[in-house]
Amino acid sequence: MSSDGGFHLGGKWIGDGAPCFLIAEAGVNHNGERERALALIDIAAEAGADAVKFQTFSADRLATREAPKAGYQIETTGAEESQYEMLRKLELTIDDHRALMARCADRGIIFLSTPFDEEAADLLAELGVVAFKTPSGELTNTPYLRHVASFGKPMIVSTGMATIGECEAAVDAIAESGNPPLALLHCVSNYPATAETINLRAMATLGRAFRVPVGFSDHSVGIEIALASVALGAAVLEKHYTQDRALPGPDHRASLEPTELRALVHGLREVHASLGDGRKRPNAAEAPTASVARKSLVSKRAIEAGTVLTIADVTAKRPGAGIPIAMRDIVVGRTARVAIPAGTPLSWDMLA
Predict the structure, then answer these.
(1) Pure H helices in the chain
(2) Cα–Cα distance for residue pair 287/115, rounded to 1 Å
(3) Does the N-terminal or the C-terminal CB of the chain have fewer CB atoms within 10 Å?
(4) Which of 182, 200, 103, 104 is nearest to 145 (CA)?
């Protein structure tokens, strides 16, 4: 980890000055189908995302058979089945993980997956993931965080539903258990999250408090808020995407479709390019405009040779290629060496 908290992940730098690291969140939008999951990897790679992320869990270990669904899950998948029954349909097998990792390697995109318990983290470590992305729901699960941190791999930690104190406890647990490279993602755990609930300025609060790269796990509709997060300094951006928002499943509704994911990648690269280094100075590209848009000193009337110039003799007009208007007080009081017709841009060789 560098002195400013930045770190390398899969050959890419995460931290100040680097392009935003985009995690295309496939999540469970594969609907439990390997071929759909493979197709989602292709979509993310073709869009230009840095990583594609899935979810690693066992329904038996994640939820009781009576666990209720979240409100948004009822809206998207109905109330007939339990959360446990829904999750069972969305599990990925070990062979699925291997196939997905192989496709990511073929397509040159980083494979990530969120483990929802210690056993899932063990599996991902055994498979050789380069980093761990932990979910907001496990932020207060300090035994889990310590276990994940013990592998020493970079951790990207979502902080939805959390107070700053809960974030501090999580960061401390991670630091005490190996202190791996760490990034924190501001998040609002609602699907979809509305603009007035998102509070993007909380990213800066996390950065000041913990001195690590910060970013945004985005559950809003569209790409506008995601782009705003990059403009505000997000080092990491996570965004759900799908083949088709009309597909059945809990997360499709709050996900981007392929064309929107491509637009997001293009937009965040443009935003990063626009940020610059913060120094206020003219850009070389402005030079042609400066000579046209700025003014220089021009004779307001015909001036005979030997005339001592007064303010009444000069004015400012475009172009800006002559004596700058800011030097008017130096020009006034000088003597004309030659006759100067009215409307003539002044130059120093005309003056004594």
Answers:
(1) 34-47, 59-62, 71-77, 83-88, 94-107, 118-127, 142-149, 164-176, 195-198, 202-210, 224-231, 258-275, 287-293, 328-331
(2) 54
(3) C
(4) 182
298: its two tokens: 């021009």
Name 9's bridge partners: 12
- Which pTM value belongs to this model? 0.90
Q: Name the token pair of 306.
A: 């030997």
Is the backbone peptide bond immediately before 319 cis, with ω within 30 degrees of 0?
yes
Token output for 57: 């869990």
| C-alpha distance from residue 302 to each of 310, 321, 336, 338 (Å) | 13, 20, 11, 11
Pick left, alpha or beta for residue 179 (phi over 0 → left; psi -120 to 50 → alpha; otherwise beta).
Answer: left
Report the distance separating Cα 96 and Cα 124, nearest Å. Answer: 12
Total length of the chain: 352
143 is written with which tokens? Answer: 């035994």
- Residue 240's contacts (CB-CB under 8 Å, 6 or more residues apart) are 25, 27, 29, 218, 219, 251, 254, 255, 256
φ, ψ for residue 198 (rounded to 5)?
A: -85, -40
Cβ-contact 189, 161 below 8 angstroms: yes
